[in-house]
Amino acid sequence: DAGVTQSPTHLIKTRGQQVTLRCSPKSGHDTVSWYQQALGQGPQFIFQYYEEEERQRGNFPDRFSGHQFPNYSSELNVNALLLGDSALYLCASSWGKGRFNYGYTFGSGTRLTVV
Amino acid sequence: AQSVTQLGSHVSVSEGALVLLRCNYSSSVPPYLFWYVQYPNQGLQLLLKYTSAATLVKGINGFEAEFKKSETSFHLTKPSAHMSDAAEYFCAVSDLRAAGNKLTFGGGTRVLVKP
User: Fold this and answer.
1) pLDDT level of residue B53 (50, 70, 90 thresholds)
2) What tens digit of pLDDT does each residue of B31-51 get?
3) Which of A72, A76, B43, B66 is at a distance of 20 to 30 A from B18, taking alpha carbons?
4) Considering only CB atoms, which chain B residues are within 8 Å of A35?
5) Is A111 exposed, middle or buried (CB count within 10 Å of its CB: 0-12, 13-18, 19+)?
6) Residue A23 in contact with residue A4, Cβ under 8 Å?
């Protein structure tokens, strides 16, 4: 049973460009969350998608947007890239409704470098 | 709002010695608490979680953590360190009531195991 799959694993972009990162959740999971982990820091919550809608959002600018597809996979888009967007982007999938969302499974991440 | 503080960004232990990683949280509602481990160039792996059942939680790889409400702490321990425990460890808190159940992480503690 495949876990959470993220692509690509590494990416180098130039300032001002746009990037799309992709995530396939674990089988049976219907919720996808995205986190940004800067070097030497803990992951920071970007947003979460459930039933193809953004359910919750962290403190990130509108340059960060996302989408969830009917098959529960998700994309994270970042526009007008800044050097400070360089980070490991983690996708986490989970299952459950309402409060009981016990099981987050994380992917290995996409390492984005902005030059 | 919730927050997590991990005391000590780096911890060095000898192989066979006790591992103790400290985590204090802040939450206005009963929390879910988690410990994750991250190996180099990998995503996050769940070690254990507290979900308001037993206050002493046992996890994988011989780790355990104790929830102490009066101290707002959730420290992680392992009686005898192994070389394979060298990694970064993150404590995280989640809000039971929020539909999004986002995770709020601490800054992490990097563990070095000396032979």
Assistant:
1) confident
2) 889 999 999 888 899 999 998
3) B43
4) 103
5) middle
6) yes
